[in-house]
Inverse folding.
């Protein structure tokens, strides 16, 4: 049995079908019944609804598990404590393999979410568990490209001149599935996972423009306005944490490029990693197919 946390997020929705197709049994942890229904529809054998801040829920989720894939809740103010508790519960239960979804350059502690993941990595290293740490770059997000296709604008929260490396979520979850399927090969490994290329916002816009056949504008948006509009319903402590984290991201990425090397990803996949151009073409083809289906 493989336990996956935050299982209905960007990673989980892609990973669960891949694990099931390989014959694995999956136990998925989610926060809401709506998310649980989506995981059941994908075929997950067990779906648990609960809060990873609850030690009793973590202990229940860990029972009888052979491997764990822990995806921390994105930008959550209790992410560090949840990660520590997951590791401690896995150790107490005698779990054979703990795989942690971290972040590229977790040592960049000016970024709050990197510092949190670095601390979880350290706790995992000292736990005595068999582990694998995965460090993805920024995701190539289909949801972001859908907005580009519909609105003709690519928006970014930091300097439009700074470069970033990205990774296709399909490639990344292919690697996660490989790691969870072969503990011996990937034990005690830490993998930096990014695709080829290092892009400014303008270059991202240029690639999208070429694929779509019309000009895509590039704009920088105000982080504080965005967070208050999108997460204004959070309690004051959680909202301030969200603001601090997003402002730290915008500041760091405006002062530094955030890049990596694609060799590890291609090596693990056994094929060339997906390029950003290939990703945009795939997503644009998918959007056009959806529109065609609706028109039919």
């Amino acid at each position: 049995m493989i336990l996956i946390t935050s299982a209905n997020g960007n990673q989980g929705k892609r990973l669960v079908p891949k694990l099931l197709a390989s014959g694995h049994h999956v136990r998925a942890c989610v926060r809401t019944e709506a998310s649980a229904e989506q995981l059941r529809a994908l075929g997950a054998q067990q779906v648990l609804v609960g809060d990873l801040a609850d030690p009793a829920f973590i202990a229940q989720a860990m029972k009888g598990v052979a491997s764990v894939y822990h995806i921390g809740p994105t930008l959550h103010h209790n992410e560090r404590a949840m990660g520590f508790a997951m590791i401690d519960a896995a150790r107490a239960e005698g779990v054979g393999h703990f795989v942690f979804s971290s972040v590229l350059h977790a040592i960049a502690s000016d970024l709050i979410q990197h510092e949190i993941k670095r601390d979880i990595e350290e706790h995992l290293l000292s736990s005595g568990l068999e582990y694998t740490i995965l460090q993805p770059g920024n995701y190539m997000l289909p949801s972001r490209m859908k907005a580009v296709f519909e609105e003709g604008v690519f928006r970014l929260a930091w300097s439009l001149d700074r470069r970033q490396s990205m990774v296709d979520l399909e490639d990344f979850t292919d690697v996660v599935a490989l790691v969870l399927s072969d503990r011996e090969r990937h034990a005690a490994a830490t993998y930096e996972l990014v695709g080829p290329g290092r892009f400014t916002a303008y270059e991202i816009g240029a690639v999208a423009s070429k694929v779509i056949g019309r000009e895509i504008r590039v704009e920088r948006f105000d982080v504080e306005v965005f967070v208050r509009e999108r997460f204004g319903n959070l309690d004051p402590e959680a909202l301030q944490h969200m603001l601090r984290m997003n402002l730290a991201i915008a500041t760091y990425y405006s002062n530094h490029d955030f890049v990596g090397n694609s060799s590890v990803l291609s090596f693990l996949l056994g094929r060339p990693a997906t390029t950003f151009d290939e990703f945009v073409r795939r997503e644009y083809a998918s959007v056009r197919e959806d529109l065609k289906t609706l028109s039919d």
Observations:
- The CA atoms of residues 37 and 47 lie 9 Å apart.
- The chain has a mean pLDDT of 93.
- Residues 236-255 form the longest helix (20 residues).
